[in-house]
Amino acid sequence: MTQVFTRVFSLLLGVLLLLTQVAQGQSTGTSIAGSVSSATGDILVGATVAAIHLPSGIRRTATTDGTGQYAIPEVLAGGPYTVQVAHPGHRTQLLTNVFLVAGQTVQFPFTLAVATLAVGTRRTDRTVLESPVPVDVIDMRELLPVVPQTDLSQLLNFSVASFNSTRQTSADGADHVDPISLRGMAPDQSLVLVNGKRLHTTALINLLGSRGVGSVGYDLNTISANALDRVEVLRDGAAAQYGSDAIAGVMNFTLKSANKGGNVLLNTGITTEGDGLTGLLSLNRGLRLGQKGFLNLTADADYRGATTRHYTRNIVSWPVFSYNANEEKARLAASGKTYDDFEQVNGDAKIRNLRGMYNLRLPFTDKVAFYSFGGYNFRRGEAVAPWVLPASADADIVESIFPYGYQPNINTRIHDASGTAGFVFGLGQWSLDVSQVLGRNSLRYDISNTLNSSLGSNSPRQFDAGGLVFTQSVSNATFSRLFPKLLAGTNVAFGGEFRHDRYEIVAGEKGSYFDYAQGKEGASAGAQGFIGFDPAFAVDGTRNNVGAFADVEADVTKKWTVGTALRFENYSDFGSAFIYKVDTRLQLAKALAVRAAYNTGFRAPALQQVLYRQLTLLPTSEGARYSGLFNNQSNVARAAGIGSLRPEKSRNLSAGLVITPTASLTFTADAYQIDIDDRILLSGIFGIDTTGARPALNQALLAANADNAQFFTNAANTRTRGLDLVATYRNALGRGSLNVSLAANFNNTRIRSLQVPLQFQNLQTDRTSEGRLKPGNDYLDQRQLSLLETGNPASKLILSTGYDIKKFSVLLRNFYFGQVKSYDFNFDPLDEGSVYMVFRPKTTTDLSLSYRPVKALSLTAGVNNVFDVYPDDIMTATRNGRAPDGFKSFDEFNAYYLAKYGKPSNLPYDFDILPYQSQQMPFNGRFVYLKAVYTVGL
Questions:
Q1: Given a cut of 50, is residue 855 above it in pLDDT?
Q2: Average pLDDT score over residue span 149-161
Q3: Distance between CA 298 and CA 283 in Å, rounded?
């Protein structure tokens, strides 16, 4: 109480003194003045300088004039004061513990570091607002200590409107590696860099789930968020600058480079349903190396508990003993079980991570410096498959082991490591950057609480199912030079790159895949839940790539910038690609600039897509079906007439405005169109053809012991159009500082045409006369195509409002997730196709309060999803949508289904045990959390 009284008294006394001085017309003669300039020597006009008198909370502000000067007159003597300086395109500077002498003017000249970009340009002095293409910059030092998310993919999902990532469930490996999307594109159509160098992809191909099906992406959660200084998201094609994959854009993760200080970060949280407990301990430390070098280290340990959302098991979908209601009731009673004993885990997988990262730079001379950075991540993941139950898979029940059924666990051990080493040489006016990057991602599956039912009572309960390994080596050399007197400044860069990729499928132990024929008749071979990799499906393949590029960026005048990039690449397995990019920015007025870009791009087929092959267990209500995913070199693919994969080719056009009416307010609007030809998709699922139209394929499937097959194929030409809007406002309000930002993305993808092999064209007639997809089990199935067009939110908005006052900060964030539409799975596969689901727009709200009791300590308490908003479950989404194509209503379809199949329709699939799909937004509901950050060295 004494401390509270003292603070209140100090506040009232300060206000009284100021009012007395003003009322008497007396000037204290005490003032703050000075200048603000950039580290490049330019004066900064319109910079905001704020002086905060901490005892009273009184805040006085000024802006710099045309000469970069500012003055704050008639301020209270004494202190302490905090002085903050901000200017768009520069890093905010804070001066603390300032005391003023009565009657004197104190001069504070400020030099602000330029917030330069490391992505989208090879100039070292280009700022965000000067960029000819849109770039989002996320300051991780400010954001990480206050928001509920700690893993990087989810943190970006709630920070960047054009970025999407949702955790998958019951999707095999995708439960453990979050797929990502930028501007509605596939996970593998964006490029990820760390400190400007290419990061390797994961070994995993997304085969199930709702996002990125058939694609190979990046595992962003191997990167420690606490190791990052900032994240730059380039929202424009940049393949000509950086190479394959950069169709939708580039994300560059810049590591911390401090040579002193550090922090300790603690985080914990839990959903209000009582599950999903999380915990994170992260340590960061900067060390000095020599006079000018540094070593920055980060270590993490984090845990995320599994989640399950309530449901009611339905006899039409997933009964335990029988599809007959009376028999089901009787056998449940005889077993002494209830449906509660067969709870399906249907949310987030349990995840444990250990991470370590480093960033090092050591100058040897003024002209030579060595740098290195990298990291290691070990992840242990525990997910589940649907229950194996007597009603749907009696042949796979072994009474002596699991008499009433079992829920297999799909577990992973992921080892991810990367390291980069290089030198920067000053060669006169030129700079040479030579680097070597090595990355490796290994994912091994072990399946527990399961059995190989073909072994009967002799079966073990856990198996090593094998795994996947991807290794990438990149050698790079880049020459660059700024010609300051060529036009108004011209930067020239050129260089070359050599990349070597290797992909391996490692076979599992024999029991994970082999058919021993010792169980019941009809018993399935291999581990239930996830069949292991057969040695016949093991593979070890490599690829080489050589590239050369040239990049010129010229300021034609001080107000007009033009850039161009050319790139040639040659791949050892599919040939060459030549692409280019041109962009421009024109300052029309002090507060208005326009920008535009056009580029061609490409994405080489991932080596994983070229080589991957596996038998997959598809969970249907009739039991597991063996679906073979065969690569394009297989006998099955040749029998189907599937050719070798070709690279995707793109054309990207963008145009935008940059409006800065005041130093406190910025607004950008960027429209874009992305055309992609020969887009690589995963085909539909095909079984034995009873019409005799595909005899060679039938024979190949029988030889491969597969019920049906899928392939990767260059199948679609698409067009994506969208609009990005970003507005930021930062200014004084009352005694504190107000920060408001609004980011929005509006996105639409349409299929322009499909490419179907001759013997499948009778299955795929593209669209009806109304423009709707044709029904049935097509060569490219309904779900895959609908996810391509409408599987990402049609719009996404993020409104963030923060208010800082003295030792307190409040952050309110609102998120709008637009509509998502897609066809359901077609596991059986039904000739009628499946239902069409519409997930309506949803809005969620986050709220947090931070308190800084001392300068070095920040404490935050918050609620994620305050109002406990859930996406539509799949039954609601089905009612929002429509019956399978060709049927006017669900009643008509259900009557047809009952007559044809002799049982009620169970569509949408798994509507009871897996009530949500991971497309639009998280479905864990409300989450409460606590965060503490102690900063060392303040």
A1: yes
A2: 95
A3: 6
Is the previous residue joined to 80 through a cis bond, with omega within 30 degrees of 0?
yes
- Angle of CA points 646, 652, 658, to nearest 5°: 155
Q: Which of 726, 730, 686 is nearest to 706 (CA)?
A: 686
Q: Is the pLDDT of residue 11 over 50?
A: no
Which pair of structure tokens corresponds to residue 396? 């796979």
Q: Are 920 and 837 in contact (CB under 8 A)?
A: no
Residue range 24-45: mean pLDDT, rounded: 71
Query: Alpha carbon 579 to chain centroid distance?
Result: 26
- Residue range 77-131, pLDDT digits in tens: 888 887 878 776 666 777 777 888 888 888 889 888 766 666 767 665 566 778 8
Would you kindly state where each structural domain of the chain is located, as residue ranges? 2-112, 135-341+366-425+443-540+551-862+881-936
CA distance 910 to 880: 18
- Return the closest-CA partner of residue 452 out of 208, 629, 624, 703: 624
The average pLDDT across 889-913 equals 93
Residue 857 amino acid letter: L
Which range is least confidently modeled, 59-63, 326-330, 600-604, 871-875? 59-63
**Hey, what long-range contacts does 583-589 have (CB within 8 A, 24 or more apart)?**
583/132, 583/133, 583/236, 584/132, 584/560, 585/130, 585/131, 585/132, 585/560, 585/561, 585/658, 586/559, 586/560, 586/561, 587/558, 587/559, 587/560
Instruction: State the architecture of 135-341+366-425+443-540+551-862+881-936 in CATH terms.
Output: Beta Barrel (2.40)
* 27 confidence band (pLDDT: 50, 70, 90): very low
**581 near 565, Cβ under 8 Å?**
yes
Pick the CATH number of 2-112 from 3.90.1280.20, 2.60.40.10, 2.70.98.50, 3.40.50.11540: 2.60.40.10
pLDDT of 16 reads 43
Cα–Cα distance, 835 to 823 (Å, whole number): 6
pLDDT digits (tens, 9 = 90+) for 158-198: 999 999 999 999 888 899 999 999 999 999 999 999 999 99
Helix H or strand E encompassing 701: helix 695-703
With a cut of 70, say whether residue 379 has pLDDT above it.
Answer: yes
Can you list the positions of beta strands (E) in 320-397?
350-363, 368-384
Distance CA 590, CA 48 (A): 17
Contact 30, 36 (CB under 8 A): no
Residue 402 CA to residue 336 CA, distance in Å, equals: 15
Cα–Cα distance measured from residue 147 to residue 134, given in angstroms and rounded to the nearest whole number: 24
From edge to edge, which strands make up the β-sheet containing 197-198?
A: 135-139, 228-234, 249-255, 190-194, 197-198
Could you tell me the pLDDT band of residue 616, with boundaries at 50, 70 and 90?
A: low
Please report how many Cα atoms fall inside a 13 Å half-sphere around the Cα of residue 817, on the Cβ side. Answer: 29
DSSP state of 165: -
- Nearest-angstrom CA–CA distance, 207 and 173: 8
Assign 759 to helix, strand or coil.
Answer: helix
Q: What is the DSSP string of 403-425?
A: TT-B--EEEEEEEEEEEEEEEEE
In the prediction, which pLDDT does 5 show?
Answer: 41
453 SS3 class: helix
Length of the chain: 938
The model's pLDDT over 553-565, given as tens digits with 9 standing for 90+, comes to 999 999 999 999 9
Q: Any bridge partners for residue 442, and if so which?
A: 415, 469
Q: Where are the beta strands (DSSP E) in 693-807?
A: 708-710, 712-733, 736-754, 795-805
Mean pLDDT for 899-915 is 93
Closest Cα partner for 433 from 422, 442, 444? Answer: 422
